[in-house]
Amino acid sequence: MQNYQANIHTLKEKVILVTGAGDGIGRVAAINFAKHGATVILLGKTVDKLECVYDEIVALGGAKPAIVPLDLQGASKQNYRDLASTIENEFGRLDGLLNNAGILGSLGPLEFFCVSTFEKIMKVNVTAQAVLTKYMFPILRKSDNASVIFTSSSVGRKGRAHWGAYAISKFAVEGMMQTWADEVEKTNIRVNCINPGATLTKMRDSAYPGEDKTTLATPESLMPTYLYMMSDDSVDKNGQSVDAQ
Ligand code: NDP
């Protein structure tokens, strides 16, 4: 799937919600989904960044996106309910959900972790994604083929010293994906994970500030996998954790 060549109409008429759409991998995924025909719903924390992505998509001739400013740290059940009913009223259904937004927190030995940072990481990386997915489920059921993608990490598959709450949150994401996937088996919804691998973004820079950036994959280079997993070409995939590199 890393070599997948998407047709320009691969995502035509699909309505796709991307979290963390203002920056990094989410930004590039949202633009690529729009380039391939989707109407994208851009959810993120910083409105200015979402507006830049909106302008970029419109300038490329993509379908007019929707912007949802929402801080997943403080979002309430009512925020998610309102979002689901707005999407239902506007589009009638949801065909794709990319749970991409995430935070790294601070790295260091578990023995000394900061409890409030731990809770923040779990809220954004795990709880918010579970709750968002739960409230999107009724409108995902209205799609012919809906794809839900969670964002994993290598440190969510094998524990690594000093990756603390971030690593624990990504293990939880893998488990959440498998649990959803088992429940939706043989329905119109499929649920999978993508592990982007080391990618040149602000998050990577904060984890490894001194590294040689030229060795890193760009968000753009991951897009064949993101397009494949969001397209109907992956309808038979469910419960898998795939690598984008
Ligand atoms: P970035 O830090 O570049 O982007 C993260 C995005 O998430 C931003 O758009 C940010 O919005 C948004 N976000 C963060 N907190 C919140 C919040 N509370 N509410 C709403 N949106 C929020 O990260 P990446 O693009 O690198 O990471 C994307 C995903 O890929 C993450 O889940 C990460 O864990 C995962 N990943 C990344 C790897 C890498 O090497 N880059 C490797 C493995 C996994 P804003 O800019 O407004 O703060």
UniProtKB/TrEMBL annotation:
Keywords: Oxidoreductase. The keyword Oxidoreductase applies. InterPro entries: NAD(P)-bd_dom_sf, Sc_DH/Rdtase_CS, SDR_fam. It comes from the Bacteria. GO terms for molecular function: oxidoreductase activity. PROSITE patterns: ADH_SHORT. The keyword Plastid does not apply. Belongs to the short-chain dehydrogenases/reductases (SDR) family. This is NAD(P)-dependent dehydrogenase, short-chain alcohol dehydrogenase family. It comes from Pseudoalteromonas denitrificans DSM 6059.
